[in-house]
Amino acid sequence: MENAKIRITMNMADNSQGKIKNIIFMNHSEELIDLYVDNDSALTIVSANFAKALMPNIKLNNSSRLSINKWNFIDDDSQRLGVVIGDVRSDFDYSDKNMKPQIEAPKSEAMDKLNNMIGLKKVKEQVLEFIKLNVVNQKRKEQDLDKIHTSMHSLFFGNPGTGKTTVARIIADILYQKRVISKKDIVEVSRTDLVAEYIGQTATKTRNVLESALGGILFIDEAYTLVSGSNNDYGQEAIDEILKFMEDHRSNLMIIFAGYPNEMQKFLKTNPGLKSRIPNIFDFEDYTSDEIVQIGLTYLKSHNYIVDEPYYIANIKNYYDRENDNSNGRWIRNVDEKIIRAQSLRIAEYSKLDAKVLQKIEKEDIKKVVGMEEVAIDDNAYTKLDSLIGLNKVKKQVSRFINMSVVNKKRKENGLSTSATSLHSLFVGNPGTGKTTVARILGQLLYQKGIVRKSSFVEVSRSDLVAEYVGQTAQKTREVLESALGGVLFIDEAYTLSSGGNQDFGIEAINEILKFMEDHRDDIVIIFAGYTKEMNDFLKANSGLTSRIPNVFDFEDYTEDEIIQIGLLDLKKRQYKVEDEKMYGKILKAQYMITNDHSNGRWARNINEKLIEIQAERLANNIDAMDDPRNLQIINNNDLLEFKKVNNIEITIDSNNNENLS
């Protein structure tokens, strides 16, 4: 139309399309509307004149669209054009932003869902940018303008329970409402929906799925499983078919590939065409403990349960810090379901189950769940540390290390900045100086103080990390690292990982450890232990080691007097005792001066083994003596003198227990 006059009203319906250059609406009645666009119709108006401002002048409904460049009023000074938009699929567009229409439009439930989701601040921002860009693209398409050549295909990175599937469904709803896609329902699939059991069938199966999603969104969950098999795995056939389809139907399909971060990074590397075809990356971060309790409370309220919120928040946050398995929303839903189960079992025998009883979750229901898997601690780890013989320097270092960690934790809880200190540590010292023992105690202290969330202490050596064949070490090392998440990993004789040179598989293990340390900086403490000289060489194997292991604990050799204390304590633990401790000490000191091999506590234990052998030989020649349990425990003076004789210790002990060494 051009230069049209509408005396009463104009109605467009049933997929009508039109363009009007100039039009005058002459209606003055409050009971009529000037223009009604309905049933998937579209109209473009260059210039419109209305008799007066009404509410509404225009109504849009049932996926209809209207675009007006400019408008004026004949008998009214107002510029407030009244527009009622009846559904989210209808769209009103005006190019002159100086105009001020009065619009009544329905709220987008999908957008509300996105905004109301707990956490995901970064993802929400990314989604809004993505939506805006594609809406502009759709507008350009409707105006016969060149589109911005960007693909909608996307990658969703994130641990389980971070809302990847939920956000994908919301994006589908919003894009459908904004007319960017024509199909409302998202198609959700996994490997089994794409990959067939027999050769030649996968391409057809995958293509059928892709075609079913045309015009909308295809969501491929755990997409990395498509390449998890061998070179002969049919998953590669599915990927090849997907890549071809993505190119052939670039503007009529959005594919979302979802999965865990590390696995998805590897997935992208399996085919060079993947990364270039998937430009949009949405990074779903883990929920914080505050967000977790919000999710938990929302879940309980949505199921009509009433709970003591402060008690719930305090206990669930503490439980989450201890037992977090990185499954995020799934974790808290599982916990809530356990609490509901505990409540149900408690009230099952009640004679009267009214609404109040059925809804109320008591503190005991929560306590039963959060305390269910709590690890009992027999005594204070500081007491264990203080009771160790010697190690004064190390004890002070441990105390400073724990104090700094506690202060940093408290500052973080109160929203203050913290010093960016890593907890990863180096334990250097000769054998038998207590490195493993102190590491176990340190792990207990870190758990007791809430620095680590699990009491687990995983001890490994080279054989637990390094595989026999090429390509297997990284996976083997990663499995060990993942088993220690939330707690402490102790790598004994760590220098052996670099002892074989650059071609040794141990270097592959070191590289995997370094990457894991960076990716999980705040969720694992790794202690590298070994002899002083060798550990200095180990640090040189990779330039990233020194910067990532700032804490060095120096285990000095024990003194002679400390060795005697260790020896006596070792015998006591084995339920032995010496007849004369002074004589034992003098003989041990003499032997230590002669045969000290710097194995420290191990040396003392080896000496005790020899003494026990001498005692056993004496008892074996006197059957009657073994009938008395006390004789089985005593290492008498004759045993000590026999040890002195066998080892050629030149020491004279007089009646006053004074020795003469030579």
Outline the structure in words.
The protein starts with a strand and ends with a strand. Residues 372-378 have low confidence and may be disordered. The protein has a 5-stranded parallel beta sheet, with no helix packed on it. A 5-stranded parallel beta sheet has the order 2-4-6-8-10, with no helix packed on it. Helix content is 45%, strand content 17%. The radius of gyration is 38 Å and the shape is elongated. The longest helix is centred in the first third of the chain and has 22 residues, at 121-142. Helix 19 links the parallel strand 20 and strand 21 (525-530). With 662 residues, the protein is of the alpha/beta class.
Number of strands: 26
Tally of alpha and pi helices: 26
Beta-strand percentage range: 15-25%
Mind summarizing the main beta sheet? Answer: 5 strands, parallel
What structural keywords apply?
662 residues, alpha/beta, five-stranded parallel sheet, 26 helices, 17% strand
List the helices and strands and how they pair.
Blueprint: E1 4-6, E2 10-12, E3 17-25, E4 35-37, E5 42-50, E6 58-60, E7 65-73, E8 82-85, E9 91-94, E10 102-104, H1 109-116, H2 121-142, E11 154-158, H3 164-177, E12 187-189, H4 191-194, H5 202-212, E13 217-220, H6 235-248, E14 254-259, H7 261-269, H8 272-277, E15 280-284, H9 289-302, E16 306-307, H10 309-323, H11 329-347, H12 355-359, E17 360-361, H13 363-370, H14 381-387, H15 392-413, E18 425-429, H16 435-448, E19 457-460, H17 462-465, H18 473-483, E20 488-491, H19 505-519, E21 525-530, H20 532-539, H21 543-548, E22 551-555, H22 560-573, E23 577-578, H23 581-595, H24 601-620, H25 629-633, E24 634-635, H26 637-646, E25 651-653, E26 659-661
Parallel strand pairs: 1-3, 2-4, 3-5, 4-6, 5-7, 6-8, 7-9, 8-10, 11-14, 11-15, 12-13, 13-14, 16-17, 18-21, 18-22, 19-20, 20-21, 23-24
Antiparallel strand pairs: 25-26
